[in-house]
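Reminder to self: tokens first, then the designed residues, so the page reads top to bottom the way the pipeline ran.
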């Protein structure tokens, strides 16, 4: 492992040689010059871990060297150690005001020099790392700004793609608005902050965006699926999550697409998450998605009207769905009824009669109405 470089500016040959030896013994690689001007040139050619300088030197004094270094943007954070015979309080205050990090009196004590250098090198390394982090942050911010307009365009395109994918269900034309309204309501009822509430409304409709990567004939099929087809259909969660992540949408959107088929009891997919390990936004969308499936007619399900919605949702509570969220939905059905007043009921919708209870049980077999 290479040693950190220490640039030494000292005009006295004997003192220079001694400091070089002490610096080497302290674990650094010494690079010595005889005056401030030579040190300044060397700083333009290499970046040392620390600058050690005398004050009284020909051509360019130590004071002038320190001022130049501190005035240079690229070198302003370079650790500086002054080795001097000037020990008065006024001299020490002057050095600190110039921006010197530390100072030692001549003759230099080896142990004291080692300890001071260790601290200065560590500080310098941390400063460089911080500068790199800031540079990366600034570049990331610039990339984010460049993507902002593009992201808005992509988001609208994404919504259109999802709408096209979901038009396999004829009665789905108001589904995005319904899910957005339900998700915002349930987010507020469950205590989410306003940012998350707005994100729920914006991204709930994207939960099945991965359907764009699934064969349309598989999405339209009303009957039982083979094990292979079921696994293929389940891939829409991973496809959707990767898609939303790739276009730069927030983590909330990605979590909704990826985890809305996870189950409270851990029997869901794609990662078999359990309980509160499932992101809250995904649990909320899963609950309102199931609720919406039961209240609104779909091409592959009958329309389950009250009181059967509550019966089925209670069956799913604690198995497929977060029980606390189910309770909030069922306790606030009057509010949901008011929200639904904005949507046109499918004229072909069918009331679910008591005689159809066997169909309800079959449709919800395994704990999922979807």
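Designed residues (370 positions):
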């Amino acid at each position: 492992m290479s040693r950190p470089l220490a640039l030494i500016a000292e005009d006295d040959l004997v003192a220079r040689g001694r400091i070089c030896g002490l610096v080497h013994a302290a674990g650094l690689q010494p690079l010595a010059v005889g005056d401030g001007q030579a040190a300044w040139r060397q700083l333009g050619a290499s970046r040392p871990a620390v600058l050690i300088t005398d004050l009284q030197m020909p051509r360019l004094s130590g004071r002038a060297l320190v001022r130049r270094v501190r005035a240079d943007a690229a070198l302003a954070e370079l650790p500086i150690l002054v080795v001097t015979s000037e020990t008065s309080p006024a001299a020490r205050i002057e050095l600190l005001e110039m921006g010197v990090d530390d100072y030692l009196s001549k003759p230099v004590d080896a142990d004291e020099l080692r300890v001071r250098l260790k601290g200065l090198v560590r500080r310098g390394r941390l400063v460089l790392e911080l500068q790199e982090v800031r540079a990366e942050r600034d570049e990331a911010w610039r990339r984010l700004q460049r993507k902002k307009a593009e992201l808005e365009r992509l988001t609208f395109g994404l919504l259109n793609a999802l709408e096209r994918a979901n038009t396999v269900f004829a009665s789905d034309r108001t589904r995005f608005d319904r899910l957005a309204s339900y998700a915002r309501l349930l987010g507020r009822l469950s205590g989410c902050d306003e940012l998350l509430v707005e994100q729920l409304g914006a991204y709930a409709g994207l939960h099945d965006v991965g359907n764009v990567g699934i064969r349309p004939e598989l999405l339209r099929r009303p009957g039982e699926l083979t094990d292979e087809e079921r696994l293929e259909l389940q891939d829409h969660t991973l496809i959707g999550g990767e898609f939303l992540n790739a276009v730069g949408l927030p983590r909330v959107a990605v979590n909704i697409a990826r985890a809305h088929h996870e189950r409270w009891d851990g029997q869901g997919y794609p990662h078999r998450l359990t309980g509160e390990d499932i992101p809250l936004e995904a649990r909320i969308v899963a609950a309102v998605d199931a609720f919406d499936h039961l209240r609104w007619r779909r091409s592959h399900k009958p329309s389950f009207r009250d009181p059967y919605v509550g019966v089925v949702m209670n069956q799913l509570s604690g198995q497929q769905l977060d029980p606390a969220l189910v309770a909030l939905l069922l306790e606030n059905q009057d509010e949901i009824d008011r929200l639904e007043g904005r949507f046109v009921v499918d004229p072909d919708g069918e009331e679910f009669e008591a005689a159809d209870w066997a169909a309800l049980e079959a449709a919800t077999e395994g704990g999922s109405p979807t």
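Residues 5-135 form a domain with the Rossmann fold fold (CATH 3.40.50.2300).
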